[in-house]
Design brief:
Number of domains: 2
CATH superfamily of the largest domain: HUPs
Largest sheet: 3 strands, parallel
Low-confidence stretches: none
Number of helices: 12
Mean pLDDT: 92
Order of helices and strands: EHEHEHHHHEHEHHHHH
Structural class: mainly alpha
Radius of gyration: 21 Å
Distance between the termini: 30 Å
Strand content: 5-15%
Shape: globular
Helix content: 40-55%
CATH topology of the largest domain: Rossmann fold
Strand order of the largest sheet: 1-2-3
CATH class of the largest domain: Alpha Beta
Length: about 325
């Protein structure tokens, strides 16, 4: 089964990224045909520093590899290194109604956020994402809840293309985790964990002291009972989910363990779970950050493998659309 997923080169990964997506990748690469991409072209839709982009792309690749993506089992490459992405995106632009794009929730949110820099790329972002997915005849796309609507649009675009020009594309399906697809902010547990919210994130490569400090400062709720109740106790519920997913322990068992203890004891124990779980990632990240040539070679080989698949798809697309 072909799997595709992409990550923007926009800074360090946090545990929401790991639990909502990367943890799935590690399981999937053991048994499926996985294609992972650093989507640098998508990063251009928001204001960015051109001089910083190459380093951010390389850092994103290091993060992927440090978190467990294995280039012997998966394809890892940079989006702009495979020009078929943009070629297919233009063709898909010509079969996608503008109204479908204007309905995208993320576009509505981003257009409010970037009112002074509202570019066409922001509107067409989901079409490029659809091209990323459809180019590899992807069957399953593991994503967070915020990208689910975009995968549904990719399905719609695939149907529209196939109906107009003949069967070419597989209609991809979304894969979400039951829990962990939406880890909430440490500083505001009613909002998703985000790098844009101060004090929100536990980063995948944080040092132990940073992890302890952030967890001890995490917002909790009134009372002292360690109980999973997302409505009345969103702070503790979020921390319980993190503890459960990282330790692979059912929440009822954690509740029982801390039945006679308070928030401080629970937070100290959670901090240790996080530190222990993330230690191998920190170690690998430091090692790979010193091996730039090695990482670039992985990306180069990945692009060759990805382009072989992409060129095969585009040959069929060009035939069907008359671009011979």
């Amino acid at each position: 089964m072909r799997i595709f997923s992409g990550i923007q080169p926009t800074g360090a990964l946090h545990i929401g990224n790991y639990l909502g997506a990367i943890k799935q990748f590690l399981e999937l690469q053991e048994k499926e045909d996985c294609v992972f991409c650093v989507v640098d072209l998508h990063a251009m839709t928001a204001p960015y520093q051109a001089s910083a982009l190459p380093r951010n792309v390389l850092d994103a690749a290091v993060c992927y590899l440090a978190s467990g993506i294995d280039p012997e089992k998966s394809i890892l490459f940079v989006q702009s290194h495979v020009p078929e992405h943009t070629e297919l995106a233009w063709i898909l632009n010509c079969v996608t109604p503008v109204g479908d794009l204007l309905r995208m929730t993320q576009y509505k949110e981003k257009s409010r956020q970037f009112q002074k820099d509202l570019n066409a790329g922001l509107l067409n972002y989901p079409i490029l994402m659809a091209a990323d997915i459809l180019l590899y005849q992807t069957e399953v796309v593991p994503v967070g809840q915020d990208q689910q609507q975009h995968v549904e649009l990719a399905r719609t675009i695939a149907r529209q293309f196939n109906k107009r020009f003949g069967e070419v594309f597989v209609e991809p399906k979304t894969k979400l985790t039951k829990e962990g697809a939406k880890i909430m902010s440490l500083s505001d547990p009613r909002k998703k964990m985000s790098k844009s919210i101060p004090g929100s994130c536990l980063y995948l490569f944080d040092e132990p002291d940073q992890i302890k400090e952030k967890i001890m400062a995490a917002i909790t709720d009134t009372g002292r009972e360690i109980k999973y109740d997302p409505t009345k106790k969103p702070g503790i519920a979020n921390l319980l989910i993190i503890y459960s997913l990282l330790s692979e322990t059912p929440i009822p068992k954690i509740e029982k363990k801390f039945r006679t203890k308070g928030y401080s004891d629970f937070k100290k124990a959670l901090a240790q779970v996080v530190i222990d779980t993330l230690e191998p990632f920190r170690k690998k990240h430091k090692e790979l950050a010193q091996r730039e040539v090695y990482v670039k070679e992985i990306l180069s080989q990945g692009a060759k493998k990805a382009r072989s698949i992409a060129q095969s798809t585009m040959e069929e697309v060009r035939k069907k659309t008359g671009l011979v």
